[in-house]
Amino acid sequence: MRIIHGTGYTDDDKRSFIKIIYQNIYMAMHAMTRAIETLRIPFEDSSTPKVLRDIDYETRDNAGARPPRIPANRFGLSTTWIAWTASADYLPTLQDILRTRVPTTGIVEYPFDLDSSSFAWWMSERSERRKWIHCFENVTSIMFLVALSEYDQVLVESDNENRMEESKALFSAPSSLILDYFPEFDGPQRDAQAGQRVHTQMFVDLNPDPDKIIYSHFTCAT
Question: Which of 77, 177, 206, 214 has its CA 20 to 30 A from that of 197?
Answer without folding.
Answer: 177
